[in-house]
Amino acid sequence: MKTSPDVATTETAKHDYEPVIGLEVHVELKTKSKMFCSCRNEFGAEPNTAVCPTCLGMPGSLPVINRVAVEYLCKAGFALGCDVAPYSKFDRKNYFYPDMPKNYQISQYDMPLTTGGGVTLSSGKRIRLNRIHLEEDTGKNLHAGGAMAGSDYTLIDYNRAGVPLMEIVSEPDISSSDEAEDYLAELKAVLSYIGVSDVKMHEGSLRCDANVSIRPRGANELGTKTEVKNMNSFRSVGRAIKHEIARQAERLAAGDRIVQETRGWDEVKGTTYSMRSKEEAHDYRYFPEPDLVPLALDADVLARWRSELPELPDARRKRFAQQYGLSEYDAQVLTAERSDADFYEATAAACDDPKQAANWLMGDVRRALQSAGFTALAQSPMTAAQLGELIRLVKSGAITGKAGKEVCDILVAKGGDPNAIVAERGLGAVTDSTEIAAMVDQAITANQKSVDAYKGGKANAFDFIVGQVMKVSRGKANVEIVRALIKERLG
Amino acid sequence: MLTGHEIRDRIARRETSALEITKRSIDAVAASEPELRAYLTLTPEYALARAAEIDARLARGEDCGPLAGVPVAIKDLFCTQGVRTTSGSKILANFVPPYSATVVAKLESAGAVMIGKTNMDEFAMGSSCENSGFHPTRNPWDLSRVPGGSSGGSASTVGARGVPIAVGTDTGGSIREPASFCNIVGVKPTYGRVSRYGMIAFASSLDQAGPMTADVRDAAIVLEAIAGLDPMDSTSADVPVPHYEDALRDDLRGVKVGIVREFESSISGDAAMSSLYKEAYAALVRLGAELVEVSLPHAKYGLATYYLIAPAECSSNLARYDGARYGVRVSDGGDVYQMFERTRAAGFGPEVKRRIILGTYALCSGYYDAYYVRAQKVRTLMKQDFDTAFSACDVIACPAVSCPPFELGAKSDPVAMYLMDYFTIPMSLAGIAAMSVPAGYVDGLPVGLQIAAPAFEEGRMLGVAHAYEQSTRFAWARAPKVGAA
Amino acid sequence: MTDVPIDIAHVAKLARIALTHDESAAFTAQFAKLFGYIEELQALDVTHVSATAQVIPIMNVMRDDIIRDCLDRAAALANAPDTSGPYFKVPRILE
Ligand SMILES: [Mg+2]
Ligand SMILES: [Zn+2]
């Protein structure tokens, strides 16, 4: 499948133009109830069963602010180094859309809950935040008959209407699609650490729009930007930005102007397309929400919320590298999810070998998760104590590395006591010298050619014989003993 | 029909029953309704069942509340669970709310018996009840005349004593003006005094529910019953609700009554109205009050300020009426936006459309600061005017309206109609308490005296109104055109 | 009469009301008269005046994060002009 523009154009863009990218990220907050009413905030409920007069926008209904949504946003703000506003308010954003029950969204305009702050990329580059504000989500439209344009009618489920959303707006500090993906990963790590959101892009609890423009490298003035929507994974955000940069570069190279517009991302075609032309540009007519009163959060409350923050990914990553002697990369991977990092630390403690714990989690455990069909460590029934015990068994030589992999597969898939698994499957290492000696003798007899070769100076023939012994022992023979005995026999 | 407190006392003495009173109310309304058309929905079966239930509970010795067995009428913008609620608009002609407004729930728990939902200007936009999406209501004092608005149905039925008590809402005068027109007592409480939950919004920062009653004592009883903090309304105030009946007084010794210089000069051109109010102030003095002149220098900007803020809020509040989730849909095969546009074109009357367009415009980028923000600043000045005035007086007495009830169709120019609210808008913008109490007649047509008090001083206001009412006895007069049961 | 800089067609589009030609014409004339009053505000010096969005000085009204009963689906859909199964149904959306 060919996607346009092609790679050559992308390269041209890289050389002639500098991309300027800002991201607007909407994150659903994991409160029990909705933003302005007491309906349950639940993903995947039966359609139109988590609704009430307020979130259906019924006549006479009124909103009341969910305190925990405010708390979660402030905690996110603290975690991202933002300033929580001493005075904040809600505003109405007015536009008609069928999944928005009141035909206005309660949002925040000129006095968001937080300003400033930033996200540090793994490269060390800092992407500044403009603001984080609190608002309500819309319902969901289902377009009967698939494509939006081809359907005769639209079905609406308002369960999601009124779910608390925080909108995190970055400054246009992002310079590439890689940085954009990195930014999202860092953001996701922080937010999942503090437990305010599921941050699952495929379930829509994290959504991202990208403002993309390009300008001649070194220029001060910003180019005309487009807003790209409808990406459903971090990877598609990266792809969409890459495509949009290339498209704009191609346009400019051809002497065209960039039109300020909203563009959708087509995941299948790998292209962006125009969604809304400029004459339909909205006038949102923001004004202060008269049904709510302003927020001036108490300093004591804010201090308490701040003190409740856990160790954040960046700090934990640094600590892991230092305390456990891990590489930057390993520390990064192991701290990306709070539950993974917790698991790692528990495993390290259980086996008393942080380095080995990291190796196992980064290697065999990851592989085993994949073959078991899990996408996250948290899905496996294996406990850190079980993995730690397995690592101990291998380290002590009670089982071989090969047997360890086998036990690991079972643990990841089903959990269990590693000792019991070893016993049950007869995976214990063979350390009895006479038993091994018999196997060594048998291998020497059966592979006279290799013996001759070794004696003739071919060192790798030795390893072949070791391999033959291991094969016979089905991997259970202690390899050190095997080597010693072969050396002894062949002089 | 007796007053609410008379009914309360007679039921307490077992001289009558809730059922008997309710039947009389239903009959009285039935008799006057062909002429007045004060109601959009009548609920006689509901009322009779509820009255019987209250009698049964009273017989068991239960306390059924301060309004036990008293028939009440509810303006049709209060949501009533299971009972059609239209806000006077065709767009909600078939809307049956799944919940009740806090005011309705509180009246019910006070023992009141709802007998119907009253007519109103559509979405409370109007001063004559002629803007109802269904039919106009008539004034019981003269059937060729309007009852005022927007709470016209409530005023008309209380004026005719179909019920002793109704509730209305006031955004810029919608309780006080019809109260004045129908010779009844109408109270607009302080903003935040009464919950707005379940009240169909017109202008959220101005709307307040209040009693419309046969006399001041009933207003005190009803206000106490419906006032107070409501966790469902973030703008309701956490201010204790006094027992307002205790504040009702019989003289005004020691009370300083402010007379607004600007209002007096604006009404001086109308000899009849001017002399009526002069006599009203004289009556206050006879009761022992001291008159002091106060000034509201920004009152003249009230109309302009109000007609930016209220339409702006209404343009947003009424966006939800789009034919998607409830109400009447008009669609002929186009896309969803065509459905929205046709539904709203067919469902809204001209006054509502006019205000939505005006308010949308006032909020548009490029105009927002010049209109909406500026209006809010003038609102600050108006509030300061009242603060200054109340540093020199306890209450303000002034006209409720500039004229007695006018004939249907007499004010076809919308701006002329807007001017009807000249004396009531400043108090609404400042959010303070104000009320209208019957003050006499011009050519046999009722006119009300407006009394205003600082925020949350409804007790003081009701006290002054009570002394005035008791000495002048205008509130006892019955509408001549419609017989009472 | 004051000249009104109002583009009724544009505003009606934002407000999603299909106005007739007669309505637009009538509104234009009526607004001209009303703006005679509204423009008076421009004469006031409000430079140092703060805006009053709300008259009562209440702050920080929040509720606890507690779930209460939702409407039954039947009650939620009862007033809908059109439904399909568990959904509200509206004409198609053309972007
Ligand atoms: Mg947003
Ligand atoms: Zn809800």
Key structural traits:
heterotrimer; A: 491 residues; alpha+beta; Arc Repressor Mutant, subunit A; 10-stranded mixed sheet; 3-stranded antiparallel sheet; 17% strand; C: 95 residues; 3 strands; binds magnesium ion; binds zinc ion
Helix content of chain B: 25-40%
The total beta strand count of chain A reads 16
Strand order of the largest sheet of chain B: 1-3-2-4-6-5-10-11-9-7-8
Remind me, CATH topology of the largest domain in chain B? Amidase signature (AS) enzymes
Q: Which word captures the global form of chain A? A: elongated
The CATH class of the largest domain in chain B turns out to be Alpha Beta
Task: Kindly state the number of beta strands of chain B.
Answer: 11
Task: Count up the domains of chain B.
Answer: 2
Structural class of chain A: alpha+beta
Strand fraction of chain B equals: 5-15%
Poorly predicted segments of chain B: none
How is this structure best described in words?
- The complex is a heterotrimer of chains A (491), B (485) and C (95).
- Chain A has 491 residues and is of the alpha+beta class.
- Chain A folds into three domains: 10-304, no CATH class; 311-425, no CATH class; 433-490, Arc Repressor Mutant, subunit A.
- Chain A contains 17 helices and 16 strands.
- In chain A, the strands form three sheets. In chain A, strands 1, 3, 6, 7, 8, 11, 12, 13, 14 and 15 form a ten-stranded mixed sheet that branches. A three-stranded antiparallel sheet of chain A has the order 5-4-16, with no helix packed on it.
- In chain A, helix 6 crosses helix 7 (328-335) and helix 15 runs antiparallel to helix 16 (460-472).
- Mean pLDDT of chain A is 91; it is low at 1-14.
- Chain B has two domains: 4-255 and 393-477, Amidase signature (AS) enzymes, CATH 3.90.1300.10; 301-373, no CATH class.
- Chain B is built from 16 helices and eleven strands.
- Chain B is α/β, with parallel strands linked by helices and 485 residues long.
- Chain B has an eleven-stranded mixed sheet, sandwiched between helices.
- Chain B has helices spanning 4-12, 18-36, 44-59, 102-109, 152-159, 176-181, 216-226, 261-267, 271-286, 302-317, 336-347, 350-363, 368-390, 414-418, 425-430, 458-472, and strands spanning 39-42, 71-75, 113-118, 165-170, 185-188, 208-213, 256-260, 290-294, 395-399, 433-442, 445-453.
- With 95 residues, chain C is of the alpha+beta class.
- Chain C has one domain (1-95).
- Chain C has a two-stranded antiparallel sheet.
- The longest helix of chain C is centred in the first third of the chain and has 18 residues, at 21-38.
- The mean pLDDT of chain C is 92.
- Chains in contact: A-B, A-C, B-C.
- The site of zinc ion (ZN) has 8 residues of chain A, from loops.
- Residues 26, 107, 135, 167 of chain A line the site of magnesium ion (MG).
